[in-house]
């Protein structure tokens, strides 16, 4: 069906992103994080999509990158977690932090999310712990190997450094179409990012 849309941010509602593509304005249900990131961009952006179709409704969901869409789809596989709840969760936590919380069994962090109590958090962990493999996750060590080594040598935690590099790289990906952030700039931004978090 639809994999993604290229267009220009044209507005928002409380839970939707408006994207203008060739004279057609799309309304895409989206997380707060996706809406905010899209609104900061004044150029054409790529929004990944998922069409949720039931007998009485049809909703097009939008995601700032493939990683967010993948996590959204995995959350939907958990009993009792529908598309709306999955989107609320992604509004309250980044995808990398969510995966880390799942892998660590951190139900306290998950229960802080909108609409998620301790029982639901435990159910999510039980269903997805160790199972949610993000696309290109295994390639990230290879992709950032030199930068990870350099940041680790500066005293930064390797796991935190990896998360920072992925997040900055993703941000660059949607801030300008097919933009590859130079390694030197990526390294500099990672240092600033990690230093700001103590």
Give short descriptive properties of this protein:
3 domains, 198 residues, five-stranded antiparallel β-sheet, alpha+beta, globular, 5 strands, DNA polymerase, domain 1
Question: What is the secondary structure topology, with strand pairs?
Answer:
Layout: E1 4-12, E2 16-21, E3 24-29, H1 32-39, E4 45-54, E5 57-63, H2 66-75, H3 83-92, H4 95-104, H5 107-110, H6 118-128, H7 137-143, H8 145-153, H9 158-175, H10 183-196
Antiparallel strand pairs: 1-2, 1-4, 2-3, 4-5
Task: Kindly report the spatial arrangement of strands forming the biggest sheet.
Answer: 3-2-1-4-5
The number of strands is 5
- Compressed to H and E, one letter per element, the order equals EEEHEEHHHHHHHHH
Instruction: Report the CATH topology name of the largest domain.
Output: DNA polymerase, domain 1
Give the number of helices. 10
Q: Can you tell me the CATH superfamily of the largest domain?
A: 5' to 3' exonuclease, C-terminal subdomain
Whole-number radius of gyration? 17 Å
Q: Whole-Å distance between the termini?
A: 44 Å
- Which oligomeric state applies? single chain
Write down the CATH class of the largest domain: Mainly Alpha
